[in-house]
UniProtKB/TrEMBL annotation:
Belongs to the major facilitator superfamily. InterPro entries: MFS, MFS_dom, MFS_trans_sf. Its main location: membrane. GO terms for cellular component: plasma membrane. This is MFS transporter. It is found in: Cell membrane. Residues 1-372 form the Major facilitator superfamily (MFS) profile domain. It comes from the Bacteria. It comes from Vreelandella alkaliphila. SUPFAM superfamilies: MFS general substrate transporter.
Amino acid sequence: MRTALIIGSLGAFFNLYQLQALFPALVERFGTTATGAGWLTMASLLGMMVTAPLTGAVTKHANPSHLLVVGFFALAAINASMALTTSQDVLFVLRLGQGIVIPFLLTATMNLVSQRPSSFVPLYVTGTIVGSTLSRFYPAWSVDAMGWELGFLSSACLMVLSAVAICLLSKATGAELMQRTERHQTSVTYTRRALTDNTLIIAYLAGFALLFTQSAVFTALGLWLAQEPYHWDSQQIGTIYLACLPALFCVLTASVLRRYLSEVAIAISLIALIWAALWLISTTRMSIMLSVALFAIGTYMFQAVTTQLLSSTRRVPAGVAAGIYLSCYYLGGAMGASLAAYAFAIWAWKGVIACIAIAQTIIFCLVMGARHCAKER
């Protein structure tokens, strides 16, 4: 079960940010502009935002291993199609298709996480970190080394291998997803509960702000490094995202931090770390790799906090809560990617920082409002 969980989260996130480091290749193959690159990144996030609320109800009786296998084969077919297309419009549609498929994989893995949150949350977040990093690094490396067609065909082969691995694990262990209680209640009842639970509302808002910030920074960073004075190619840009991997150690040891600090204190500390990293990136006085590493530690540790909040609820099935959370999460990602590309094209990096500051301020006010309403009840 642990291996399937990691493969599920890693494989799903592997498809999410494939184009963020490929701006030079997109310009060469499709004539893409900076704003167009933002829309291509946003497409998968938009598909996830639309699909995620439905996945809990659609998949509540599905065998998670079968769901993961079918999902990975679908992603393999989409990657193969991306390898062959020469139209930016078709590429946008394919990216949208990836976004439609990915929530089914993530809902299956979140159902596994909800069974043993304290043990499985670090594994889930580990999969998201490795998957997100490879999502940016591997396409940049493979496209630069093998060309667009072979690069994405190799990604399709990796998805097929993931499907085969899940299938073999399922046969070896015979593991089935444990059923949650209260299945006699309707999906409407569960959705109403999920939308009125104060803890979940805070998790939804925090998830929106988290991926808004992350998508905005990584989208703008890919555009920035491709232009003056850097003129980096796709492989060089992709290498930057390897700086996210040190966050693995922090996530896996987060339980030690929770012994001494409350969730609120941890969240405030991580927000401060994120803004310190953004300041370092803006000033360029220190290594970009170091700045990205600090930013990744802050954002992925914050993701561990929100995932813990999400998986600790017992009032609604994990699939329902995860569906709403993922919708908010990827709405933030879609808006962050598109607004960052637009802001960067007009106001450069300062415009991106302003977008992030405004979004986080609004979310902070909403979170404080939700906490105040909960105290009055």
